[in-house]
Amino acid sequence: MKTETVDEKRERILKTAIQLFGRDGYYGTRMSEVARKARVSPKTLYKFFSGKKELFISARQYAYNRLVRDTIATVPPELVGLDSFTTVKSVLKSYSAFIRQNRGLARILAEAIAVVDDDIRRDQEESFVRAVSAMTTVFSKDVQQGKVKLAADPDKVAWLFLSLAFLIAYAVLLDLDREAIGGFEPEYALEHFFTAMGEPVYA
Prior knowledge:
Elements: H1 6-28, H2 31-38, H3 42-48, H4 52-73, H5 84-101, H6 103-114, H7 118-144, E1 148-150, H8 154-173, H9 186-197, E2 198-200
Antiparallel strand pairs: 1-2
Helix pairs in contact: 1-2, 1-4, 1-6, 4-5, 4-6, 4-7, 5-8, 5-9, 6-7, 6-8, 7-8, 8-9
């Protein structure tokens, strides 16, 4: 039998933490339960993470990276290399579908903002700022090259796009996207938002 590496053990703990945080939330998840479900001793768990706060931040980062990776992977090949607006539109639609199928991620992303802890909120805010900066860069380049027309400055549009993404996470967390409860349709909201925010320029 292959011996599990340190990185593989850490990843197993993170995957377990994501399941529990996604089900029970930050305040409802206990480190002892994470250790039990991950099949490690509490001593081993605390070797990797100093406490629940550090584990939650690491789990959120891991989940967020997985979310980005999996949603980008769903972008149709024919859209790769096109204008940034069309690409972001496809990515956000994939994000909406993915997060509705993986509802625990919605809870983790939403709680990273709602939890009353300065370190957790700071980590979430820094991640948000990095994402806005990256999106602003690609939007600005396409605007300068005449590939995209936006309804506002690239940084404002990027900020609004990502804010809508977090609002969708909250809607999924509250089950508002289920017709019997709220009747909120994320894809419908996204389509109208895209129409209002800009459009690609075809030569």
